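step=predict obj=ABC-type branched-chain amino acid transport system, permease component n=342
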Amino acid sequence: MNSKQTLLRDVLILFGLAGWAVALPGFASEFVLSMALTCLMYVALSTSWALFCGTTRYLSLATAAFFGVGAYTSALLVETFPWWQVVALGALVAALLAVFMGALVLHLRGTYFAILTFGMTELIRHSITFYESTVTGTVGRMILVAPDSSTVYYTVLLLAVAAMATSIAVRRTRFGLAMLGIGSDEQRAQTLGVNTRLVKIGGFAITAAFAGAVGAAMAVRWTYIDPTTVFNPFIGFQTVLIALIGGAMTLWGPLLAAILFSILAETLRLQVPELYMMSLGLLLILFVLYLPGGLASVRWFMLRDAWCTLQAGWRERRYRWSGQQARDEARARQRARERRHV
């Protein structure tokens, strides 16, 4: 399959999934729509995160910071600005924050970069809490004016489709190739003339813009937000977890993992809330150990081989547990003794 055929396939799949999601409110219940909204939120967050972090191999834990900044922008402006401008401003503020943060920390790599992005997220959260408690006197914001739920759903759907379309487009540009080159060997990319600092800041800003827009759109679901809610580190950890489970280097892996993971997380939260976090941690360990390429690396022949191995193992255990193995071994020993006597 050549490049044009691959592009056509990706665009058709994206249109098919988007059309199904557009039609969903017509026949789904409120519970299903709420779960679909969560799926779409994590599709946008994990796809945009993988676009930068998956290709450049920079592990960012700042998603919660961009999400929270977008949410606060929405809470401050939703009563005075039109809805689409509020979402756009949430993306813009988050992107500007990413440019500033990237200029400070993108010269680092590995655990140093991850720890610093997490530390700056916590710094922003505590700074806003301190400002509100000492200046305004009230921690948090009330959201009294909000669009209806269908507007929020279609907004998040549009952001998820835009994140996927951006990922498809960027991977085919020189900018996308430059990010791949940075992930493979940053010094060699510099030698070949890539302005790695500018490329990294640009990719980081794109990731942040989507996270900020999603935060602005999702903030109106709550009537009250505070720094603990919207800067929750779990939002960033879950985004990273979904991208790693799906395959951070792939296009469709984060989308597939976001859908499966959201359904699984909601089921665990409702059925076994005391084992919820433990199950997620165990899932991450199993994927890192046995499927490091993520769900997108699974191929049909791997599933077929795994199924054949399971069937062979089950037949062997059934042969042993039924006593047939012991009987066959006893017959073999009896025949051996008879041959010795003859």
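step=describe
The chain has two domains: 3-291, 302-339.
step=end
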